[in-house]
Amino acid sequence: MSVVGVPVVNDRSSREAREFHQLKQRAAEYYRSNAVPQRMQQVLNTMFYEKPDDVYGHLSVCFAAMSNCCSDPNYTTQGAGDNDNEQKNQSVEIALEWINEPLNSLLKGLLPANQTHVDKLLSDYFWRKVEEDEEQRKKDDEEEKPEEPELPPPALSAPVGGKKKKSPKGKRSIVPEKTINPRYPPEPPFPGSVAIGVVSLAIAKAAARLQNTYLYLHIASLNQAEEPPKEMRMPLPLISLLDCGKSSGGKLRLLKEVIAVPKPGLGYKKSLKMMRDLQQEITKWMFAPKSGPAAMSHLGCWKKGYDRIEQPFEMIQEACTALQLTLGEDLHLMLNCGAHELMDYEKQKYEVIMGVLKHPDDMIEFYTNLVEQYPSIIGLIDPLRKEDVEQWSKLCSLLSPRCYILADAASRSIDKLLTDGLGANQYSGLVLKHANQTTISNLIHVAKLMEENGFRFIPGLTDEETTDNSIADIAVGLGARFIKLGGLCHGERVAKYNRLLAIEEELAQRGALGESSEHQFPVIAEEEKDLNPEQTEPKQLS
């Protein structure tokens, strides 16, 4: 007797199971492509340590910050990210309008080789726009200003009780800690300003193309005002290894980036291979049993939460040992502290580890002990806020003989550096970006100013990068000591490292590749010295 229908049921069950499995795979791929697991890990890890009273309210704030503009017309909720995206889109639209008509007419008929003249026209146009905007704002404020009604004088009230309260006996008045300097007001980019920097770079690229030369050689000729030097040195790469800062989900908040610096003279081919091997070894530790969650950071390196400041250094040391590398010889470390992200303005202290608060004065001893404990550290980026001028001076006087003290977010804008000089804040160098209204001539002038005063000019990336690799040519052409590009992941960063490899190979073939010198740290005295564009005497290096 045959059992009719059983094969059909089996076929249907297997087909449904197969379809359900494929559905799960598509769902997993969808969430993975949108980085949902990594973001959920970050949110839940951070929330576990913060332990907010309103759990779901905290989650709603986190999700609102991560959300983008929704395409559903009935969805009207907007978070901070929506406003930022809207402002950026408006700025891009204004920039395109500038390029299509006023700038196009302004530069028509000019030779690309005359970079200085073109950049002056661009800058003049930009500042005219800024002045027009300020005048319009003043006019609008005057029109909208309401008339203040006259109020009667307040009635004087008799004091209640004639006796003054006596202070309790035997109790001393507690001397409050020194208050911190308030935050400087933010300087948002002027809408459309990106058009100025983009057109300036396009002019430099066009001139290099017409002269049938490389962009870095053209920029070097602009920098020297004559023929480029016979030998050119490659900037040392600052390669991010770990992101274990405030957003990593651990208790440790101080180390926004742990950065590796290959030893001078190694060359890009060997340096990048060594860093790739080191990153692969770190990846093994990331996925070891009981290692905890990890995710890929937007900085191009692993994001990992730690509870103690020693843990990142221990892992890097173990990875170096496995590769037979000597930390402090084959490579050194720099730390991007991201101090401006750590300040608790209510308590007026830095939260270096969750629950561990330190006044800016206390941070000086903290960093001194850290550099003594780990002698492979040769640089601190943004160890303090830009507002902590007094503490910057003290920290530089203590650590500058053996460590670079660098400013990134703590640096002022390139416009202010050119108009006001390098300023009262003391540092070994600045991480500067080619962004917004910054022209190629602006970069050349500020690089000369820093070189003449013995500081390190370090080109870096903006937060939102493309695969354009011009920053590599700019760094080589201006003779930068370092270049900060992040980790060895993500196409927009890899494209720039590949360009540096190509430049080094081209220089070597022409016999024009100079040797990188050993690290020399600019010694900065505690006395503040305002360095302006007229000062040209270089600082003595140790």
Mind explaining what this structure looks like?
The structure is a single chain. The strands form two sheets. Strands 1, 2, 3, 4, 5, 9, 10, 11, 12 and 13 form a ten-stranded mixed beta sheet that branches. The chain is built from 16 helices and 13 strands. The protein is α/β, with parallel strands linked by helices and 542 residues long. The termini are far apart. Strand 1 (236-245) and strand 2 form a beta hairpin. The longest helix is centred in the N-terminal third of the chain and has 30 residues, at 115-144. The chain has helices at 6-33, 36-50, 55-66, 80-100, 102-107, 115-144, 194-210, 215-224, 268-286, 310-322, 360-373, 389-399, 414-420, 440-452, 470-477, 491-509; strands spanning 236-245, 254-262, 294-296, 302-304, 331-336, 343-344, 349-353, 356-358, 377-381, 404-407, 429-432, 456-459, 482-484.
